[in-house]
Design goal:
With 99 residues, this protein is mostly helical. The protein is built from 5 helices and no strands. The radius of gyration is 13 Å and the shape is globular.
């Protein structure tokens, strides 16, 4: 399947590491991890989607700041666990799970 994200080399490298973290930390198969990352990327970089939740669309600056491990947690929370965008709920989940 492969990742369905931008053609930016830096983003590709970062999200390849996110896929690896999803596999090692959360037990996803390669295909499932790539599907989740692609879904997350499609939603959270789309301003129309983000406007529905009153959040800012994410960019490489955001992704790079969070880094691959943090992005894997976000992808798992929002795509794997199917939570609606809610930063407070995400932070609470992180704290409950010792992250």
């Amino acid at each position: 399947m492969g990742l369905k994200i931008s053609a930016d080399e830096d983003e590709i490298l970062l999200f390849e590491r996110v896929v690896k973290h999803l596999q090692s930390s959360y037990g996803y198969s390669l295909e499932d991890a790539e599907r989740l990352v692609s879904g997350y990327y499609e939603k959270f970089t789309d301003q129309n989607y983000c406007d529905k939740y009153d959040i800012t669309a994410q960019t490489m600056d955001f992704f790079g700041h969070i880094e691959s491990r943090g992005m894997a947690d976000r992808v798992h929370f929002y795509e794997g666990l199917k939570h609606e965008p809610d930063e407070a709920a995400f932070i609470e989940w992180q704290q409950k799970n010792g992250m």
